[in-house]
Amino acid sequence: MKIVPDTSAVIDGRVSERIESGTYEELTVLVPEAVVGELESQANDGRDSGWEGLEELQRLTNFADDGTITVEYIGRRARGDERDAAHEGDVDALIRDLADDHDATLLTSDGVQAEVAKAKGLAVEYVEPRGRGKEHLAIEEFFDDQTMSVHLKVGTKPKAKRGALAEMHYETIRDEVSTEADLKEWAHDIEESARASPEGFVELQEPGMTIVQFHDYRIAVARPPFADALEITAVRPIAKTDMDDYEFADELKSRLAERQRGVLISGAPGAGKSTFAQAVAEFLNDNDYAVKTMEKPRDLQVGPEITQYTALGGQMEKTADSLLLVRPDYTIYDEVRKTNDFSVFADMRLAGVGMVGVVHATRAIDALQRLVGRVELGMIPQVVDTVVYIEAGEVHTVYDVTTEVKVPAGMTAEDLARPVIQVRDFETKKPAYEIYTFNRQVVTVPLDDEEGGKEESSVGRIARQEIEREIRSIARGHVDVELQGQNKAVVYVEEDDISYVIGKGGGRINDIEGRLGIDIDVRTHEENPKMGDSASSASSASSAGSSSHSGQVSEGDIVTPEITSRHVVIRMDEHVGETVEVRADGEYLFTATVGRGGDIQVSRGSAIADELEDAIDRKKQITVVAA
C-alpha cells in the first residue's frame, strides 16, 4: 500500500500512530518535499507544529531502518509564492497531484483537503485532527473555582493566582517541577484544541508567541528566543458581574443611558477593569444600544449579541474605519495603551460613537492625564467626560470631566482667565483637579489642599516657579521668591540686580506683574529675614558662576544660567569653541560647544531646555565640566 501524507497528518503524528497500531501492511510512505518545506519553514519561525512534524519524519525514518516500512521523498518543494499562498490551497494542490500521479492514498487531518480530494476522485483517508470537539484542556486540572490564572514554565513549579478578587495570592499549586516535555504536551494540546474546536481560535501567532482563546480561557504560549524558556500563562474570568453589583450603579446607569459618552475605566492590573467593562457592555446592550468591542486579543466575556472585533490587518485604525461604517452606539475598547490607541479612541468619540476605554492607571486622575499631549487639551472633555477608577473589584472613584473659561483656582487676576478642564468628584460634585495651560505648560492642579496649609500648595509652587523664571531672565545673580498670599510675592535678588529687575520707572517689573497677575516686591538678599547659610552659599555660588575663569574648564565649575523669553543661556566668555558637559547636581544633562559669543544657548521649549529649567526650579547646582 502507498500513502501520501499531507502536512496536517505529519504534524499530528498520525502516520507513525497508524503504523504502530498495525493498520497498514507492506506500506510505502511517499513524503512530498512540499510537506518538508512547510515543516522547515514553521520550525524556523519557532512554531511547535514545525518541530513536531520534523520529529514525525524522524520516526518514519526509524521505521524504515527497521524494515517495517519504505519511505520515499517525492515531488518538489513549494516555491516562496506558493508557500505564501498556502492558505489559498497552493501547497495542498501540489500534494494532491503527487497522490494522483503515484496512484496513492492521500492521508490527511484537514477536512477541506479531504473534501477537495474526494471531489477530484482521489483515494482519501481522513483522520480526525487531535483536539476535535474537545471540551476541556489538559491544563484545566490546575484550575479551581477561585483560580484566576495559571503560570507554567519549564524548570519551575506550577503557580496560580487564587482567591477573591480583592485578595488574590500568587501561590505554588504543585510540588513537581514542570519539564520541557510537559510544557510541549500542554502547548500542543492548547493550540490544536483551539484550531479544531468551534469554541476556540488562535488570536495571534508570531515567532516566539502564540495567543489562544478557548472557551473562557485566554492562553499565551511563549517560546525562546522571545522568552528564556517555554512558558504557558492561562487566564480566565472568575467573576461575572452586572452594573447593580457596583457602587453608584443607578447614577452610572443613568449617565451612560442618557447619551453616548466617552468613558475611561482605569485601575491597576488585576483590579477588575475588564470585569466592570463587561458589565457596562451588557447593560448598554440590554438598554437597546448597539454595542461592539475592539480588543487585541479578544478577551471580554460578553453575550453573543455583542460582536467582538480585533485589529484588522494588525491595525486598530482599520478596525475603527470598519466600525464607523457599522455605526455602533457604543464601542468597548480594551485596552487603550499606546498613543495610536488614544488617537483611534478620540477619532471614534469625536465621530459621535460612545466609547468606553480600559486603561492601566494607578490613580483615577492618571487615566485622564494620559490624554494630555495626545489629544488637544481643549478637546479632552469632548473625548472623555467620565473616569471610573476600579480598585479591588469595586468602583473606588468616579470623576465628571467638563471645561469652562475661568480664572484657575488660586489665582485672582481677571486677565488670567483661560479654558480650564474641571475634574469633579461624581459623588460630592466638588472639584478635585483643574487642568490648564500655564505659561506654555500643561499643569494638573489638585484642589483638595493635600498639604493642609502647612506646605506650599500646587498652585503656589507653579506660581513661584514662573516668577523665578521671569526674574532670572533679567537678573544675573541668585533669585529667591517668597509668596505672600494668592496674588502677592517678594523677590530677593543681588543688590546689583535691583535696577535691572525694576527697570526704568518700574516698567520692567510692571510688565512681569501684568503677565503673571501677581504683585511683586523686589528686595535684596540682605533684607530676607530667612537669610542664612543656605542663602549665603547660594549667593556665593551665584557669584562664582558669574565670574570669569581662565584656562581649561575645571571639574564642576558652577554657573548660573539666564532664562530669556526664547533661550536658556549659560555664559562661558573665555571658553569659545570648547566642548563641555552641563550637569545638574552632578547628573549629566547634555553636551554642548561654547559659541562664538562665549555662551551656550538652548532654545526654550526643547527637551534639553525643559530639563535644565526643571533643574533650576528645583535649585539644583548647575555645573560645567570639560567634555
From the structure above, extract its key features:
single chain, about 625 residues, alpha/beta, Rossmann fold, Beta-Lactamase, 5 domains, ten-stranded mixed sheet, seven-stranded antiparallel sheet, 19 helices, about 30% helix, elongated
Fold and architecture overview:
By secondary structure, this protein is of the alpha/beta class. It has five domains: 2-126, Rossmann fold (3-Layer(aba) Sandwich), CATH 3.40.50.1010; 138-235, Beta-Lactamase (2-Layer Sandwich), CATH 3.30.450.90; 243-446, Rossmann fold (3-Layer(aba) Sandwich), CATH 3.40.50; 458-533, K homology (KH) domain (GMP Synthetase, Chain A, domain 3); 548-626, no CATH class. The strands form six sheets. Strands 15-14-16-17-13-18-19-20-21-22 form a ten-stranded mixed sheet, with helices on both faces. Strands 8-7-6-12-11-10-9 form a seven-stranded antiparallel sheet, covered by helices on one side. A five-stranded parallel sheet has the order 3-2-1-4-5, sandwiched between helices. Helix 7 (111-119) links the parallel strand 4 and strand 5. It comes from Halogranum gelatinilyticum. In the N-terminal section; belongs to the PINc/VapC protein family. GO terms for molecular function: RNA binding. Keywords: RNA-binding.
Outline the fold blueprint.
Elements: E1 2-5, H1 7-11, H2 14-20, E2 28-32, H3 33-44, H4 48-65, E3 70-74, H5 80-84, H6 90-101, E4 105-108, H7 111-119, E5 124-126, E6 147-153, E7 159-162, E8 169-172, H8 180-196, E9 200-206, E10 209-214, E11 217-222, E12 231-235, H9 249-258, E13 262-267, H10 273-286, E14 291-295, E15 307-309, H11 316-326, E16 330-334, H12 339-350, E17 354-360, H13 364-369, H14 380-383, E18 386-391, E19 394-406, E20 418-425, E21 431-438, E22 441-446, H15 458-472, E23 480-483, E24 488-493, H16 498-502, H17 507-516, E25 519-524, H18 533-546, E26 557-558, E27 562-563, E28 567-571, E29 579-584, E30 587-593, E31 599-603, H19 607-617, E32 622-626
Parallel strand pairs: 1-2, 1-4, 2-3, 4-5, 13-17, 13-18, 14-15, 14-16, 16-17, 24-25
Antiparallel strand pairs: 6-7, 6-12, 7-8, 9-10, 10-11, 11-12, 18-19, 19-20, 20-21, 21-22, 23-24, 26-32, 27-28, 28-31, 29-30, 29-32
Family: In the N-terminal section; belongs to the PINc/VapC protein family.
Region (Disordered): 526-559
Protein name: ATPase
